[in-house]
Amino acid sequence: MEGRFGGDDWALILGGSSGFGLATARKLAAHGMNLCLVHRDRRATLRQVEPEFEKLRAAGVELRNWNVDALAEDKRTLVLDEMTELLGPRGRVQVLLHSVAFGNLKLLAPERPRQDHPAQALAKALGIEEEALIAAADALFAQGEDGLEGLATPPVYAERTLDAGDIARTIHAMGTSLIDWVQDLHRRRLFADDARVFGLTSEGNDIAWKGYAAVSTAKVALEAAARSIATEFGPHGIRCNVLQPGVTQTPALAAIPGSDRLVAGSRRRNPLGRLTTPEDVAGMVYLLSLPESAWVNGAVIRIDGGEHVSGVTS
Fold this sequence. Notes:
43% of the residues lie in helices and 15% in strands. It contains ten helices and seven strands. Helix 2 links the parallel strand 2 and strand 3. The protein is elongated and about 75 Å long.
């Protein structure tokens, strides 16, 4: 495949070892863009990540990765110091993708115990044990029978509720840390003349999911930050947009209590009958990185196959 990017074009991906970040790295590498990937993985996970990085190098691009905390100021300085030397006098960052998934998933308020469960009435009507009915519903629901959501075992949430520190850390991690990276890259003159910056939000930016309050707050903060980046860095040639994928099977989704309910609900109402994939999002990052999309700035762009407009469940 002939690349659309040249040897001096680089992408910096924060959270580049899995999910949206890794899918975007694959897509951009396939079109000739060199890669700087910042990620944070334990030793056991690294055994799975390193072969993926080798595949990226096999695409014929340069790749440098840092297994460090992208939220720590000293680590950001370390990465940018080494990037300055790596890129040299001509290399520039064409794409910055913020795909940091580090959020607190506690409830705001403790749950009140339910006095009944839909399985109770059904089990009684059928003359069977409630436990057997719920076990059967759990098994089938796990296999993709999404309509059994109401009969399956409810999600279990942490007993401790959110505090101010939980919320502040999540807002910085998944929201305002984007500003730190943009400012520092710009100060070092590492951005290309026509650079593209991307953040990631979710449908939790305007509806409430249980256990998602801190992340939802962070996503709204990210969108506000992105609007200001688009406005104030626009004169410097930097475009900033936020991508809103539909529900996607990623490690971050799996960490959300009740994520199986989100998956089931999305599959049932998506007009195209499937979940969003990381590759769907990577494709949009690629398209918005091309010269033809230079007039898109300050937008929140949904990539969900129409999931957000559909009130139909099947």
